[in-house]
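Whiteboard transcription, Tuesday session. T.W. wrote the C-alpha cells on the left side:
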C-alpha cells in the first residue's frame, strides 16, 4: 500500500502538473473510441501495455474478461450499454492474458469449492471449456490453458452480440469487435483475425507483423495506434 500512496504523491507533484492541459480538457467530458473488457489481473496493466492516455479507453474489468449474455450481469451489461449507446465507441476489445487465474479455475473447477461466487461467475465461460474438451483432448496442462484462454475470448466476443446495442451497431457497420491475448512473459499480443480465422502474434520481431502493421491492414485505427500523449516525469 505504501508504494501506491507514494505513487499518488508523485502523480500530484510531478505527473499532473506536466499534463494539466490534458486533464483540464478531459474534466468536462470524454470521447473514447475503444471499450476494453479485460481481466482484473494485476499484471494486465492496460494503460501501460497499450501506451494509452487518460480519455483513450473506456474500461470494464472482471475475473476472466467475461461478457455474460444480456440480462445475466447488470454491471457488465450497463458498462457495455453506456459505452456503445452513450459514448458511441467504435471498437470493443476483449483482452485476455497468459497465466490467467480465472482460466485455471475453469480448467480445474474442483479448486473453486470454497469460492462459490467465482464458480458461479465462470459458468459464463462454460462453452469455452466444453470446446476445449472437443478440440484439444489430451493436450498438456500448459497447452490447455493457452487454448482455453483463446477460446474464452472468442466465446465472449459471441456473447457481446447478444447485447442489443452491440448487435445493432455491428450490423450498421459503426462498431467492430476485437479479441486479444496478452503474453505477460514476452510483452506481446496475439490478436484474433476473424477474416483469416486464426490468431496472429504481434511483436517487435521482424519475422512477425508489428501491431502498427497489423492494425494498418485491418479497419482498426483507433486511439491505440496513436503515440502516447501523456508526459512522463
Ligand atoms: Zn485473468
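and on the right, the sequence the group agreed on:
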Amino acid at each position: 500500500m505504501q508504494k501506491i500512496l507514494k505513487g499518488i504523491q508523485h502523480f500530484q507533484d510531478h505527473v499532473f502538473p506536466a499534463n494539466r492541459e490534458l486533464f483540464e480538457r478531459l474534466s468536462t467530458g470524454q470521447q473514447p473510441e475503444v471499450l476494453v473488457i479485460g481481466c482484473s489481473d494485476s499484471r494486465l496493466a492496460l494503460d501501460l501495455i497499450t501506451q494509452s492516455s487518460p480519455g483513450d479507453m473506456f474500461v470494464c474489468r472482471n475475473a476472466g474478461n467475461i461478457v455474460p449474455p444480456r440480462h445475466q450481469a447488470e454491471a457488465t451489461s450497463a458498462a457495455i450499454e453506456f459505452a456503445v449507446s452513450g459514448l458511441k465507441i467504435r471498437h470493443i476489445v476483449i483482452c485476455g492474458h497468459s497465466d490467467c487465474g480465472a482460466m485455471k479455475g475453469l480448467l480445474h473447477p474442483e479448486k473453486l469449492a470454497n469460492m462459490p461466487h467465482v464458480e458461479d461467475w465462470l459458468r459464463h465461460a462454460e462453452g469455452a471449456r466444453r470446446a476445449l474438451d472437443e478440440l484439444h483432448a489430451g493436450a498438456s496442462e500448459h497447452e490447455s490453458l493457452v487454448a482455453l484462454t483463446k477460446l474464452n475470448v472468442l466465446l465472449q466476443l459471441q456473447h457481446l452480440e447478444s447485447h442489443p446495442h452491440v448487435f445493432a451497431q455491428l450490423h450498421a457497420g459503426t462498431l467492430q469487435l476485437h479479441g486479444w491475448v496478452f503474453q505477460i512473459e514476452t510483452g506481446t499480443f496475439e490478436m484474433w483475425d476473424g477474416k483469416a480465422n486464426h490468431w496472429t502474434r504481434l511483436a517487435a520481431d521482424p519475422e512477425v507483423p508489428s501491431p502498427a502493421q497489423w492494425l494498418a491492414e485491418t479497419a482498426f485505427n483507433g486511439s491505440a495506434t496513436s503515440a502516447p500523449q501523456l508526459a512522463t516525469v
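Someone added at the bottom: The radius of gyration is 18 Å.
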